[in-house]
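User: Um, what's this?
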Amino acid sequence: AGEVVNLTIAGSSVGSATTDAAGAFDPNVTTPDLVGAQTLTGTGATSGLSASLTLTIRDCVAPAGVGGGGLAVTGVQIAGITLLAVLLLGAGVFFVTAGRRRKSAVRA
């Protein structure tokens, strides 16, 4: 419990973790640029005990069209909303003006 476990892949250090009371640990490792089947080895810093497991490291290439380098498109496209608001405002002004003219014509 509380022992530091040094982790290696292909002889390169990829991180370390500290064991809990049951001897378990949750590693956070940074893998080297190796792709394919690799052996992860954990060795106790104090006890010298070690264990290994085989894992597969996959190449993490971004899909096409991702990470174009430009700014992300966020927010709302307001051009259409603004145009609709202007049209509705114009229609409102038209109907108010037409209503006033009609009232003026009826009074005269």
